[in-house]
Design a protein that fits this description.
A hairpin with a 2-residue loop joins strand 1 and strand 2 (about 70-75). Helices cover about 55% and strands about 10% of the residues. The strands form three sheets. Strands 3, 4, 5, 6, 7, 10 and 11 form a seven-stranded mixed sheet that branches. Strands 1-2 form a two-stranded antiparallel sheet. Strands 8-9 form a two-stranded antiparallel ribbon. With about 600 residues, it is α+β, with helices and mostly antiparallel strands. The longest helix is centred in the middle third of the chain and has 37 residues, at about 285-320. It folds into three domains: about 55-90 and about 120-280, Butyryl-CoA Dehydrogenase, subunit A, domain 2, CATH 2.40.110; about 290-440, Butyryl-CoA Dehydrogenase, subunit A, domain 3, CATH 1.20.140; about 450-590.
Amino acid sequence: MPEYKAPQRDMQFVLNEVLEIDKHYQSLPGCEEASADMVAAIMEEGAKFSERVLSPLNRVGDQQGCQFNDGEVTTPDGFKEAYQQFVEGGWPSMTHATEWGGQGLPESMGIMINEMVGTANWSWSMYPGLSHGAMNTLEAHGTDEQKQTYLTRLVSGEWTGTMCLTEPHCGTDLGLLRTRAEPQLDGSYQISGTKIFISAGEHDMTDNIVHIVLARLPDAPAGTKGISLFIVPKFIPTADGAAGSRNGVACGSLEHKMGIHGNSTCVMNFDNATGYLIGPENKGLNCMFTFMNTARIGTALQGLAHAEWGFQNSLTYARERLQMRALSGPKAPDKAADPIIVHPEVRKLLLTQKAFAEGGRALIYLSAMQVDITENSEDGQARAEAENLLSLLTPIAKAFLTEVGFESANHGLQVFGGHGYISEWGMEQNVRDSRISMLYEGTTQIQALDLLGRKVLMSQGETLKTFTKRIHKFCQAQSDNEAMQAYTQPLAELNKEWGDLTLKVGMKAMQNRDEVGAASVDYLMYSGYVTLAYLWAQMAHTAQQALAQGTDDQAFYEAKLATATFYYQRLLPRTRSLVDTMQSGADNLMALDEAHFQF
């Protein structure tokens, strides 16, 4: 049966040794108490909950799914009880302000917990996960009264939250949305419209659900400039804050999905539902980006989760499954055949999963540290640099890690051969569950346009320079270290090429803006491979230092170096084809007249 074991040793390696999280916390006001010992203790407890409570429910959720009956949704067996344990453990409140009942811990510590929870059971993790974004939005843009009424109960886990953006006729192009908000004399609004694909939109795990909804006021400008943001609770709170009378919002149906069956993906109907404005009128999209950025980092975690889960289970299988003899001679002569882990192509599948999971972990933790800085630092320059770096890394992490996470999930199934296609092993569920990650919170194509068009070209390359300067300084610092040249020399060349390619695409786009769209996904994937190359070089350097100083964990550090070498020699060369395709231009995509697309 499939299992999950929290990779605490690797998590500690990235946090403590590579990113030096203890120094990071000591540099930020309000984070000083988040010591390495505290991180280790919280990690240990999070691992126990993820392994013992959530992991056994992963297959249960896939098999049972959610049940819909006359507007009410019942979650799979054990989901509700697991959520109560989650709340009793204080997990929802970790990274939120003490003023609203939170524990005031850094965002990066919450990301660490979210990784374990999500890898153990992604469908379940989406229920509290959606609440996190709602809390951040309320904390940033809500009134004190709204925070007292809604935020405190979201922080405690008593209630959960959602985000309601997508409508049947529009997806990412929110300027087309039709949901209406009619002002009322008491200052509230009546919200009417239909939203689809609403994760955790209806369930039986809490007494109330707080929907964060985009809608349009009667006199609003057309397009994205005329969108406002509203709180629409399932039950309207009473004067003492309890869940009161039922509001005019209901689940119309559950979507029939390819995967993540344990999470309720709902069609939500708002019929003159009472709502309350968050932030200024017609500035809802600006406020919503607080929610979206949180969600995008969370979705990047999904890419890591499916790579890690696939790796762990396919590694166990590869060690046990006997098939053929090694080409170089028997490796298990006492057995009928050798375990398949001895075969080079199986090794390639396993190492690809391992490289993407461990590299992805470093990328997500690095991104989470930038969130810590933007939220806690008193140094204006440090905050500005962190914001620039986060704006660049967010679309890379979201799109690149979900693409390679799906690739890794497929590799996991491949290691199992025909057994991978059979549901009892869990590998086909991992593939199905991972596929959505490249779609929601902005498809890979949307993230690519955001990266190349908005983040890089619209800033005239300044956002990119924030990161390439960091890579350049790292390579310079290792220029006299012979042991690092296998990593830093190709990394330095790629880092320079990254800037050159950006300039070339930008110059072509001045003549034809379709050049941005034609190059964008290849550019994003190239950016992802270079970003992970930088992080793998950092991990290799840390491993080299540990081995040179002497360690009781020699095998761990030697595995790091071997995986870094594999990444550089087997995965990083993919950048060569990406350079060719992104520079091939828009003509080979746009030359065929639309009318000539025939079947």
